[in-house]
Write a structure and sequence with these properties.
- Helices cover 27% and strands 22% of the residues.
- With 347 residues, it is an alpha/beta fold.
- Strand 7 (274-276) and strand 8 (279-281) form a beta hairpin.
């Protein structure tokens, strides 16, 4: 297959910045309706497709969706159990190799974050305070005196963490970031922008629900998962999300952006790369799952979180030089822990 991570580099970089501010047809929640219309480039004349690098909210035809389903079905021939076990047991090795090869040259900083996730902007602690999320914190741990605590899981080399630290100047902000790969975490720590007074990077296996986090339960305002849950084995996703949910304050939110079903990356996989239904291994040994909205909703709801947003972002990206079109499908979610209800006043 084509270099599997090349499509990730597109998705994380330019051409509109990863689907900023799109309101999909049929959105019904108030949160969706309030989204800023950053992406407003709609393709109304197919003859104009190569006039721009990307088009927003591209509707799929019935024929296109049927073709995608057929392609996935044809390639749905899982590898033998022993090969699947090899990719699971050596997952850490494959991700370390990936970051050793690419270091910090692969992904682009995600500056679209603050359009899609204003919860990461300055004064996030104050907004959480209004939602009833103030809790007393016992013990001494990194960031224990902070008024706003953000954790990014699967931080890679810091393409989310460093934009947050540069953009959010809230003096009460403290950012935690972790990754499965010790190589990636070391690259974060040696980055000249890493400030241990405002940030704490650590190695952590999201799927190991018995492993401790450096913060107590009920102390985080925001948890960010950007293209990371899809790297876990599907059998480990529910326990991992449920464990993360315990870290949230009342009113705290979990923010996710990940691969949607029939994304171009899924359709590019050839036979011999399928691990299980909609779960694949790339040429470099790293793995990826492609979600539906319902699957993600079930994961968050089972963890006791309330839906704020769950939408599909369909984008048509264009390589004008090669006259190629690339259909991307991402899912974006916001789920929160219920805020503390104020006590009723006595007569």
């Amino acid at each position: 297959m084509a270099a599997p991570h090349a499509v990730v580099a597109v998705e994380e970089g330019s051409s509109g910045g990863g689907g900023e501010g799109l309101i999909p047809p049929g959105s019904s929640t108030a949160a969706d309706a309030r989204r800023p219309q950053f992406g407003t480039r709609f393709l109304t004349d197919p003859r104009q497709v190569f006039q721009h690098n990307a088009w927003d909210n591209v509707e799929w035809s019935e024929e296109q969706e049927a073709s995608a389903k057929k392609k996935v079905s044809e390639n749905n021939q899982p590898l033998p159990p022993e090969k699947q076990e090899e990719y699971d047991s050596r997952a850490n090795e494959y991700w370390n190799d990936f970051y050793t090869i690419h270091e910090n040259r692969f992904f682009k900083d995600r500056h679209w974050l603050f359009t899609e996730f204003p919860e990461l902007a300055p004064q996030c602690g104050r907004s959480r305070e209004r939602s009833g999320g103030v809790v007393d914190v016992d013990g001494d741990f990194p960031g224990s005196s902070a008024t706003c605590r953000v954790l990014e899981v699967g931080c890679g080399v810091g393409n989310t963490v460093f934009p947050i630290l540069k953009t959010n100047n809230d003096p009460g902000l403290f950012v935690y970031c972790c990754d499965f790969s010790s190589t990636a975490v070391e690259l974060v720590k040696t980055n000249p922008e890493y400030d241990p007074e405002r940030c704490f990077a650590f190695v952590h296996d999201l799927s190991d629900v018995e492993a401790d986090y450096p913060v107590p339960d009920g102390t985080l305002d925001v948890i960010v998962l950007i293209f990371v849950l899809s790297a876990l084995h599907p059998d480990k996703m529910q326990a991992s999300i449920s464990r993360l949910a315990r870290l949230l304050k009342p009113g705290g939110v979990m923010l996710l952006r990940d691969y949607g079903r029939y994304d171009m990356a899924q359709l590019r996989f050839k036979k011999g790369r399928c691990l299980s239904e909609n779960f694949y291994v790339r040429g470099d040994g790293t793995r990826v799952y492609f979600f539906t909205q319902d699957e993600l909703h079930e994961l968050f709801a089972e963890a006791g979180l309330e839906k704020v947003q769950n939408l599909v972002d369909r984008r048509l990206q264009v390589n004008r030089g090669k006259q190629l079109t690339m259909y991307r499908v991402w899912i974006q979610c916001k789920y929160r822990r219920a805020p503390v209800e104020p006590p009723e006043e006595q007569d």
